[in-house]
Amino acid sequence: MARLYLTMNNRVLSHHRVAPGKQVTIGRHPDNDICIDHMSVSGHHAAVKLVNEQLTLIDLGSQNGTFVNDERIEKSILAHQDWITVGKYILIVDLYESLSMEATENELNINSMSRRESDQTMVLEKEEFQSGWNYYNYLFFLNAAREDYDLIEQVITIGKNNEDKIKISGLWSFFAGKPSARIKKNQNIYVIEHVGGRLKTKVNGIPINKPTTLKHQDTIKIGPLEMQYRSFKRPSK
Length: 237
Hints:
six-stranded antiparallel β-sheet, 48% strand
């Protein structure tokens, strides 16, 4: 019997057994064996089946794709400790039931970013970029049915202008700036600064008046927008 460890943001959430001859489905709808209630995951995203000690993964026509060790697949035979990416989540393959949840979480956190903070600036050590990990950063909207916003541009503006990446609309736009706030990317570090307008830019409930480095799970509030900065990683190979 094989197992799949469901992880998010470098933490193990649960583990699921795959019995011989049985198919385990993964998706957002509650009828799945592994239900992941997140907009980045399709209703019926992927399926895993164990036959003759061979574990096979099949993409079920998902919108955002299914990845094995950073490669998009339609169908793939899985090896021990392969990493399956479904939306923002990672499932780690345990073919022999030899991994423990604690050991798996330690593996997720190994080579974690070594940061140092000085005058609100954080520097990522060079060797971390050479350690074989890819880092993914995005904004999760806490109070609106919006898709996650992937932080891939060098500059992301938040305001009422049409060219702003994240729009403030409705009556709130009368108080928003042009823009209200700006998030800048420096390697894998993201810094937010208030730019203008009558809406305060708050990080973890505190208005900011100078550039502020974002940390994993920091909350950002600007008028009606309430977001959480999230960062996770998966292997590049």
